[in-house]
Amino acid sequence: MNVFERVESEVRSYCRGWPTVFRTAEGSTVTDESGRVYLDFFAGAGALNYGHNNPVLKLRLLHYLVADSIVHSLDAHTVAKRDFLEAFTEIVLAPRGLEYKIQFPGPSGTNAVEAALKLARKYTGRQTVVTFTNAFHGMTLGSLAVTGNSMKRGGAGVPLGHTVTMPYDNYLDGQTPDFMLFERMLQDGGSGLDKPAAVIVETVQGEGGLNAARPEWLRGLADLCRRHDMLLIVDDVQMGCGRTGPFFSFEEAGIVPDIVCLSKSLSGYGLPMAITLLRPELDVWEPGEHNGTFRGFNPAFVTATAALRFWTDDELDKSTRAKGEQVRRALADLADHLGDAVTGLRGRGLAQGIAFADPSVAGRVCAEAFERGLLMETSGPDGEVAKLLPPLTITDRELTQGLEILADSVTAALNLQPA
């Protein structure tokens, strides 16, 4: 028995599907201690949009650390934080006409969500938050309360309340009434629905099965929130920072959320960092009312600022959209040969997947992919989706190679004859 099995908690998960010990990583590849190279279609669950050890970000980080620059600062003013705030405002917010205040709630996505939920309740004086089927927003108690997955919710060990779940776009296979049920319940004093403080939504449900909401559905949701005085929170933790093309995944819908949660690829280097964006009039916090020891991790500010160089023009956006189209064509070609074994294609941009009628197939596909040198994971409430989440900076050759490995892995998982 190795040290991981002997000492580490049984809660470990990804390592069970990837039974090796990794040593180094560069760009879109990861190498284990035996020297075997794996192509990465996982990208740190979306935390490595710019690839492993991006050289520009790495150089900035090394220079910062060698200079004995401050690393830990809570919420004290630092040069690194100032540089990030100025760059983020100039490069991301101002060109989009967004005037958000920026809160540093702690180091991870669930911290950003918890801050958003607390703020919405504090500002409105209401308790209920509306979430959607198959949502995933994090593993702390507030975030779990707005998460749909029963296994993850069950791990809380306490009741998870003050939330109401509504059907996500296309939840009923095209028959979902566009907010008719939701609005009727808001208007009916006998529905049992207390007036919500906020609605929280993912534009693409990363962990819930790569369900992608239509732009018109998102616009309808934003309009409903305005008309009924509910705050709209967009959780862009996994789909933000360019995963679907534009920097924010909600840009395509043309909506402006009241609150936005960002993390994962925000630091650009895999360093922990999260922010909660909020309309200025919502900033009703008392000093210290919401805090965290590691909300001032300056090395992450440094790499986050460096990563914003990718957003000074629209080249990465265009590239991601083009690569996303390549992925969609490859998945469609694959699905055409599989018939009823496939129930649909999911996702958008470089967050896509293929859903199988037999949920166990997706897990077998990922296992076969690992044996062939490709790292993937599953998604969905039953793990029925084989999920592709490569770095946005993946080369055309690497992307093509990975898609070919995927096709071979599906053939093997279904015991089919090679085409």
UniProtKB/TrEMBL annotation:
Keywords associated with the record: Aminotransferase, Pyridoxal phosphate, Transferase
Highest taxon of source: Bacteria
One Pfam family it belongs to: Aminotran_3
Enzyme Commission number(s) from the entry: 2.6.1.76
Pathway stated in the Swiss-Prot or TrEMBL entry: Amine and polyamine biosynthesis; ectoine biosynthesis; L-ectoine from L-aspartate 4-semialdehyde: step 1/3
Cofactor: pyridoxal 5'-phosphate
One Gene Ontology biological process: ectoine biosynthetic process
InterPro entries (alphabetical): Aminotrans_3, Aminotrans_3_PPA_site, Dat, Ectoine_EctB, PyrdxlP-dep_Trfase, PyrdxlP-dep_Trfase_major, PyrdxlP-dep_Trfase_small
One function term, GO molecular function aspect: diaminobutyrate-pyruvate transaminase activity
Membership in a protein family: Belongs to the class-III pyridoxal-phosphate-dependent aminotransferase family.
Record-given protein name: Diaminobutyrate--2-oxoglutarate transaminase
Organism encoding this protein: Thermomonospora cellulosilytica
